[in-house]
Amino acid sequence: MTPNSVSTPSRRSFLASTAVVTAAVAGGMPLLAACGGGQEGRKEGTTSGKDAAKILPAFAAQSVVTPDLPAKNGSTAGFTKAIAPADLKTSVAKKLGSGGRLTVMAPFWGTPPAGSNPYYQAMNKAIGVEVTWQNQDGVTYDQKLGAVLASSDIPDVVVVPAWNLTGRIPSAINAKFADLGPYLSGDKVKDYPNLAAVPTDAWQRAIFGGQLRAIPMPASNVTNIAPFYRKDLFDKKGYSLPKSPDEFLAWAKEATDAKSKVWACDDMKWSAFNFFGALSGGDKALWWNLEDGKLINRIETDQYLEALEWTRKLYAAHVVHPDAISGKAGGDAGNRFTAGQCLVYNQDLSAWYGKTSEQRTQKNDFEMGAFDIFGPDGGDPTLWAVQPASIFTFVSKKASKQQIKDLLAVANFCAAPFGTTERMLTMYGVEGADYDLKKGLPVKSTQGVNEVNGAFDYTGDPAPFTAYTDLPDITRSIVEWQQRMGAFTKKSSFYGLTITEPTRWANLADDFEQLEDDVVRGRKKISDVQQAVSDWKSKGGDELRDWYKKLLDDNGSAAK
Amino acid sequence: MAHSTVPRSRAEAATRKATAKGPADRRRAPGRPGKVSLRLRFKRDRTLILMTLPAVLLLLLFNYIPILGNVVAFQDYDPYLSDNGFIAMLQSPWVGFEQFQRIFADSAFWHAVQNTFVLFFLQLVLFFPIPILLALLINSLIRPRVRAVAQAIMYLPHFFSWVLVVTVFQQVFGGAGIIAQTLAQHGHGGFDVMTDPEIFKYLVTLQSVWKDAGWGIIVFLAALSSVPNDLYEAAAMDGANRWRRIWHITLPALRPVIALLLVLRVGDALTVGFEQLLLQRQAVGPDASEVLDTYVWWNGIRNQDFSYAAAAGLVKGVVGLSLVLVANKVAHLMGEQGVYKK
């Protein structure tokens, strides 16, 4: 049940107490969707086109090393060869940090390292800022975020993934975080050359509530969720890769052997949405697409329901690892995968390298792959582009100018391109502790795998790239997978834009994720989803559709 | 927040008991020659008052002042209106009972209420007697070393976090746990206690018993130790067997404690567990696992619908208070002291 369940006239009237909302409800005025930068008052809608151009940083390309695998079809650029330490360039000529202190709260996937580990210390020293990390569990980060943002004491810097921008978090962001425009807009960004090389479409995403509020982490717009399989175990058993959802189910039944504690797969919901071509679920604006002149939402599509139904079949056939049913309390899917308890699981593409490098320190023959996403009938899939930046770093409004500059120093350092000493330190940590040079190749130690993971990586990044030089085959596989999938990728109507929905509808779709999980586990029926969709429509979904339509008419679509 | 109107601990209940005695003294006062003036009474009791002062301050600071925050239940509270949550409270628009209307129209809320009461009654029937039985058992152990070891083993799970308890249960009773694995190897697949919404209520009760039943015996053991041995000896002389002695000596001695704890438990009826249920929410879905506390948390913290959650919390507090009043009344009617007396 959505919290905004009762939309009586009285509720409407109190919500309409701010002028902005009155305008939107009455429809008599344009949606204020395109105010110029620097205005505090506007909290909803989006900023694009000319208005965005006023606040976006100027782009200044940077080329240190030419990629072995150039970006294509929206893929990342791939670097397969390590650069010898002597040949590394320097991109940050002088320390930009003031020696001040910054507390950064960020999501962390895995077990956070000790706060004073050699990697963090070395980074802090090189940047000239004393960063203290508050690494929070990434899986339940949304729960932490809501509470922290509601308090009056928020950390200096907060990292927020786009998929956590649910409920009222977007309005919290507009209220609590500083405008970085005065430091970055136009040519000002040139003080931070590495940030100037961040692609403009990533910066476009960093405009929240009419202001440039974030440092974006640029990303490939090809879906980041890959269905991984244990190549070593597949080879051993002689399985061939399934080529359609039906084949997958048939294979899964054959491969599951509960007696030996082996299940075919883990929760496959995310992949199912891709197999069946459901609109992207990562960012709320991407839920919408213009079809035949009408905006439709992913939850209204047949593809969405088909994906849920197929995932439900997997659970019903008991081919999904039983601990997956319990979600977080059941343990970590990645661990079940590496332990060989499930043969297929879906995860962010970065797990390809992450899991392989982690496992190779103990098992030399560990091998995983990602199979190509297939369409509902086994043909080519229809994939929807994900946003070109999906992790953002914000600075608290209460931070001093010096602190903002210190964060920009951190971001500029971390955004150094491949082939620089800064990149090397960010990616591999300290030689001798986090990695060793083996035949000129940096290879992470166990300590390095634990310490050099996330954190600094989220606060700033260059244009999307893949450069796991210690595992060049995996680098190549990742880039090529993105390029193949990129060929099937389409952009939906609001691709590339960051949109703040009016708060009165902010909680409208909150419970769909829970409902999906209930349906695939067999606790609720597909008809319950249909019922929820019709409730969603009557409680504001249709009004929200009109609101988005107006936004589209006023701003135009970024998708081509 | 709202819940703090109900005594949360014995200590708090005891404080109330102590303060509640005041008027009773005064009523007795006219019988005495010359009223004791307030000043004199203060002078007489100042050491005691001084000693309660820290507790009173803590209560004020952490229980009573936060109650004021309940005003957001009557607002459309937006904490982001100002950098300071309290100032935002002043700026948020008033909506009267709007949030309460929303709650009462929300079927998920009634579902949570239902789950809460079902869990409460299950815990009352299945959990509450167990510490008493364990206390009797431990009390019957003579050798001090055996007794100490038994007690330590029973106390230990109390110090485990819920995350650990749920993980242990998952490893034992889960679909890939020890039992399921053993059964599967003998041809009985499909065993999974952890994800069955139907038996979830028994599962959480079992988890609570395993974790906290041992801890619960402390109070009963203390009560048992105050029973004079002469009584047992005398009864034994009169030919009372073991059961007779328990029935006529031990249980009557425990009665006031049982009544007190029962009243307290009823006051806490709407608090049936939080982390435990939240952790297992995904395993069985909100239909089976949502109780009032998790409902408040989910809407307030996760969905940031603060006013809505505050209103739900307030409802819970008011119902909890009336339950404790009723239970106390019943205790009085039964001739027990209960939590407090007028």
Structure report:
The complex is a heterodimer of chains A (560) and B (342). Chain A is of the alpha/beta class and 560 residues long. Chain A has a five-stranded mixed β-sheet with strand order 3-2-4-15-7. A four-stranded mixed β-sheet of chain A has the order 9-12-8-13. The longest helix of chain A is centred in the C-terminal third of the chain and has 30 residues, at 526-555. Chain B has 342 residues and is mainly α. In chain B, 70% of the residues lie in helices and 0% in strands. Chain B has helices spanning 10-28, 38-64, 85-91, 98-104, 107-127, 129-140, 144-155, 162-173, 178-185, 200-225, 229-237, 242-267, 275-279, 281-284, 286-289, 292-302, 306-333. Mean pLDDT of chain B is 83; it is low at 1-8 and 10-31. The chains are: A alpha/beta (560), B mainly alpha (342). At the A-B interface, helix 1, helix 5, helix 6, helix 14 and helix 22 of A face helix 4, helix 5, helix 8, helix 9 and helix 14 of B.
| SSE run of chain B | HHHHHHHHHHHHHHHHH
Segments of chain B where pLDDT lies below 50 for 5+ residues?
1-8, 10-31
User: Which percent bin holds the helix content of chain A?
Assistant: 25-40%
CATH homologous superfamily assignment of chain B: MetI-like
* CATH uppermost class of chain B: Mainly Alpha
In spatial order, strands of the major sheet of chain A run 3-2-4-15-7
Write the layout of secondary structure elements.
The complex is a heterodimer of chains A (560) and B (342).
Chain A lengths: L8 H7 L3 H8 L22 H7 L21 E2 L22 E8 L9 H10 L2 E8 L3 H10 L6 E5 L7 H8 L4 H4 L8 H4 L3 H6 L1 E2 L2 E2 L1 E5 L6 E6 H7 L7 H11 L7 E3 L3 H8 L11 E4 L2 E4 L4 H15 L5 H4 L7 H6 L3 E7 L2 H10 L7 E3 L12 E2 L4 E7 L5 H14 L6 H8 L6 E4 L2 E4 L1 H6 L4 H4 L5 E2 L5 H15 L2 E2 L21 H9 L5 H30 L5
Helix pairs in contact in A: 5-6, 12-13, 22-23
Chain B lengths: L9 H19 L9 H27 L20 H7 L6 H7 L2 H21 L1 H12 L3 H12 L6 H12 L4 H8 L14 H26 L3 H9 L4 H26 L7 H5 L1 H4 L1 H4 L2 H11 L3 H28 L9
Any descriptors?
heterodimer; A: 560 residues; alpha/beta; D-Maltodextrin-Binding Protein, domain 2; 2 domains; five-stranded mixed β-sheet; four-stranded mixed β-sheet; 23 helices; 19 strands; globular; disordered N terminus; B: 342 residues; mainly alpha; MetI-like fold
